[in-house]
Structure formats: C-alpha cells, structure tokens
Amino acid sequence: TPMSFPVNPSKSAVRWKLRCVFCKERVTSSDALKGHAYYAFGGMWHAEHMNCAKCKVNVSEIPFCQSPTDPAALMCTDCYMIDNNPDCAVCGTRLYETALDAGGKMYHKDCFKCKTCKNPCNDGHYMTDDTGAIYDVDCYHIMALDRDYGTNLGGNKE
C-alpha cells in the first residue's frame, strides 16, 4: 500500500529543526550563514562548541577527526594521532608523519635503516632476515654469504 501523508500538516511537523550535537540547542540558518555553525560527522555544531575532547582547542577552523570512542566528540588532528597512531618499531615513539610499513611493522622514515651499515633503506629496496631485521640489498647478501659459507666478507670475527 502507498504511504499516506497528512493533507494539511502543521508547520511544526514539517519544519526540520537542527540541533547542535554538543548543546542540543537549535542551529539556525543565520548561524550557518555567518559561519557560526558547521556540519560534521552527521550532525550540526555551533562553532564555539567544536572543541577537541582532549586538549579543548577549538577545531572549527583547523583539521579535526571524530573521536573513535565517542561519535559525538571531536578531536584535533594532533590529539587523534597521539591516541591512535602506532609506534615506530625501531625507536618506539609515536608515528605522526608519513610512515613506512614493512613486514607488518611501522617505521619513521629516518629509523628505517640497514642493521649492518646503518644507511637508510627508504628507496624501497630492503630485505629482512628470519628475525625481521632490516638490511639493504648489498648488506643482506654479504650477511647471507658470511652466514651460509663463512666467507667473512662483512668483517665479522669468528
């Protein structure tokens, strides 16, 4: 059966009243036109209520994220990264910038170095041993020859 609608609905039944996610007060079109209200993550916010759930900085004019634990809370990008980004597999500090993913581990670009020569492997060419240690291609082959054939090319003392 087709849906039926009231023939003469009251204005209050038709009018959609937007409410601020934070304060639950009405958000008017005037608020939005003046730049005092924003739509984010499925709801309207008064600009003055768009504060980071952790550090309380106003995020209405800066990049922000939705809190992973509370969909009605916002977080500045810095606090979001502090709480949610992984740690570097080498130095153990939080990854904020672009990170490298190798073998299921995450690294700072500067921490992604060959175990033997300590040179960066950020050209994308690297190898790992059974322990997950990172080697540039040359050092890996030298290490493998030393290990498998006792060549001592890497200068290892026996």
Automatic annotation (TrEMBL):
Domain LIM zinc-binding as annotated: residue spans: 86-146
Any one GO molecular-function label of the UniProt entry: metal ion binding
Family listed: Belongs to the zyxin/ajuba family.
Organism superkingdom: Eukaryota
InterPro entries listed in its UniProt record: Znf_LIM (IPR001781)
Pfam family, one: LIM
Keywords: LIM domain, Metal-binding, Repeat, Zinc
S-adenosyl-L-methionine is among the record's keywords: no
Entry keyword Cell inner membrane: no
Protein name: LIM zinc-binding domain-containing protein
